[in-house]
Amino acid sequence: MNNDIPVREIGPQGEVMAHAVDACVHCGFCLPACPTYALLGDEMDSPRGRIVLMKEVLEGGLELELAAPHLDRCLGCQACVTACPSGVPYGELITSFRGWSEPQRRRSAFDRAKRFAILKALPAPKLFSVAARFGQYAKPLAPALPAALRSPLDLLPEHVPVMEPSAEFTPARGQRRGRVAFLVGCAQQALAPNFNAATLRVLSRNGIEVVIPEGQGCCGAAALHTGARNEALRLVRANLAAFDPDEYDAILSNAAGCGAGLKEYPAVLHGLEDEAQARAFAAKVRDVSEYLAELLASGDLQPPLPASRPLTVAYHDACHLAHAQGVRLAPRQLLKAIPGVTVAEVPEGDLCCGSAGTYNLEQPELAGQLGARKAKNILSTAPDLIASGNIGCHTQIQSHVRRSGSPVPVMHTVEVLDLAYRGEL
Amino acid sequence: MSLKLPRLPEKWALTTTSRARKPASPGTPDNALAAELTRLLGDRKVLSSLPERRNYRYDAIAFGETPLAVVLPESTADVVTAVRAARAAGVPIVGRGAASGLSGGVVPLQEGLVISFTRMTRLDIFPERREARAQAGVVTLKVTEAARPHGLVYPPDPASFRTSTIGGNLGENAGGPTCFKYGVTGDYVQALEFVDEAGEVHELTRGAYDLAGLLIGSEGTLGLITEATLRLTPPPRHVRTLMAHFAEVGQAAEAVSRAIAAGAVPSKLEFMDTACVGAVEDYLHLGLPREAGAVLLVDTDGDDLETVEAERALVETACLEAGGEVRRAATDAEGDALWRARRSVSPALGRIRPQRMNEDIVVPRSVLPEVVREIRALGDASPFPVVQFGHIGDGNLHPNILFDPRTESEEAVHHLAHQIALVAIRHGGVLSGEHGIGTMKRDFMRDAVDPESLDVLRSVKRALDPQDRLNPGKILPGELEAPHAHP
Ligand SMILES: Cc1cc2nc3c(=O)[nH]c(=O)nc-3n(C[C@H](O)[C@H](O)[C@H](O)COP(=O)(O)OP(=O)(O)OC[C@H]3O[C@@H](n4cnc5c(N)ncnc54)[C@H](O)[C@@H]3O)c2cc1C
Ligand code: SF4
Ligand code: SF4
User: A34 C-alpha vs ligand 3 centroid, how far in Å?
Assistant: First the structure.
């Protein structure tokens, strides 16, 4: 799309945005992929519509506050990126736009307090853990609270586990095949410590030694996607300092959102002095399922023990795995490698579950509609087990599956694999 | 582990346009029309704020004026209300589907009302009559999806069928790859309901004067189509796919002429030239032959496998004789992938240059080789990349001029487009096969249609829309200025 975005005034992020806008031919192929368009059916809440809105705000022809409600409703799920034949990097556009526009936003004191709390608590596992436990006690009060306060509580599991820090070094068992660095993630440590424990066990069993470098922190995605660019830059640089890509075969994450965040570093630092460093770093980043599937492909994956009975596993594609990172096959291949497991495809599988980072907290109503729709679609496959590769999807799906009265367990892909290795599946 | 089936409130619909609660338009309407419509229809169905309205001023090719108001009707009655209000206010009305049109059809040339049909999505299938009744906003693909469990499909298949609406398909008389054997949208319309410029509702069948036929392809200039009865057919039992590639575009066209002369009636017969193949490869990575000058994609289908195979063999021989190399799709999945490649051509071209001028000419099949070669030569002699693809079986070609509006002259683009249009006309062809005339090709109408016939078209328009209220400035060359491709 032709545009007059004042790239010079905005700087390197302006280039990123202008490039994305340029690439869009407004063909509308992305419309049917977009969850908010699916719910609302209007142009402003479609990817094409949002690209036009952002272009016009950037050009100065439209007030930011007028466009903001529609841009805020974007989940950042990047389903539109998968659907777009012209290769529009929508993810980079919306992320850069949020970073550029946030300092100019007029937000209510309540909104600002909420955002501050989210941004502080998410990347600080200990703080998050405390907050989550506090929330757990507040849960019985939920029905009496306004929606904005109720939604985060609704998402908390019934039982918030005690945090177990992971060992800084996990040796390889048996023949040593590789050495990787692992990003432990933030909220996930507090909400689902077993994701990391299972990941370490599975890697180690496959002869991979795992280092959890000191000084690492939050990947920065939450800050970035809510527009807190300076905060994000600080986090990104801390990680660049903590992980030396030359030391490892790969840098692994087991949370789709974080993995996508890490792979985004070059775009975040575009035009800055550490861009090259970010490129070298991002080139080594893999989702844990990608890495394990590479072992599977080369015949190096230890065969898992068969499941105790035939199991249907509904695999949910996390947006940040499928759309942002393009990882679809790997987790399915791993699940199928377990004898006795059949992988069920979820109807409307490309539609976001509504979790999308902090979306649940900011747009509870739309998130709720999407969550219920996702639960219904998943359960329609009559699964014995639900697997996905992202903590956000995990909590969202678990909460909506439970709400619909189903007891089907929801697990991380690696947890399923771990159970199979232990003969407990 | 046991499974208890969930009982959830039916708050969603499984179409692209659920009736989920939509956040109301913020603020108060800033003009009288928007205020009146909001009073009549409520703020859920009327968009009046600036960012909302601004997003209804474009289609897949051009930008125009921001409308005063946008109505998202849910029923024919809502359309009637909106049309009457616009008439009372004396402003023009533009009907809009998914805005995937490529000729500027939904681009408002003046301030007025846009009626967007994306929420009119009721769809009923009547298997015993082999018919579907669809409201205008039903997404094309949904008709086949709903009909398939009854052993039926809806054949018209524009490349945009995941996005485009039945209303828009009717507005443009859309075709697609299957139209060579199975025909275009208009061939599947049994009846339709429309609202005229005065706000009266009419139900038309195809008897007596084929008024329904007149509305089909009229690009919203004669009436607003609210519902249609569509003919469904059982899908062919067997489909075979073949891909052939050639060193040069003219050879591909020759192969087509030979195959058809030999008596083959493929269900789909499409081609794309080397630039298209490259753009699609960049998107889908299917291993298409990038080095080829042109690629043909062919489906033969039917209920008798022997005939289907025999027809594929006829096409194969024709391709080999024309100097091509042939690859048969081994599996359905491989065939599907090849067709996905073809459907992605048009938007994938955005990877080469940000903007394009899209032609939609149709020429007699006998002259195809000359026409594609002449267009290739015009392209080579110009500073712009010119690419070609299309439903070559019908002689429907889409030469596209790719350009960058920031650095290249739109006038030069327009000139080249005109030259290409003249090639078609010189060889006995026409200006539009399926995308419509809209504003993009309006000026070439004078070359294509003689003045007397143009007068007849004008009097038809006057008879049905005396005040020129319905999508003014489209199709017929006249007073209003066509918009530039971009703002
Ligand atoms: C990538 C791409 C590929 C395409 N491939 C094809 C193809 O293979 N074949 C093909 O034929 N077209 C193709 N098109 C063009 C376009 O998709 C079709 O013309 C389609 O029918 C338009 O449908 P729509 O719902 O988007 O209509 P719109 O673009 O919204 O409207 C098209 C026209 O119809 C009018 N209209 C819309 N709704 C109504 C209504 N209810 N009543 C009266 N008039 C109405 C509008 O005023 C306008 O003039 C393609 C477009 C793109 C972007
Ligand atoms: S599919 Fe891509 S090019 Fe087409 S409108 Fe959407 S973002 Fe733009
Ligand atoms: S990122 Fe997701 S929600 Fe946002 S525009 Fe794209 S498809 Fe829609």
Answer: 5
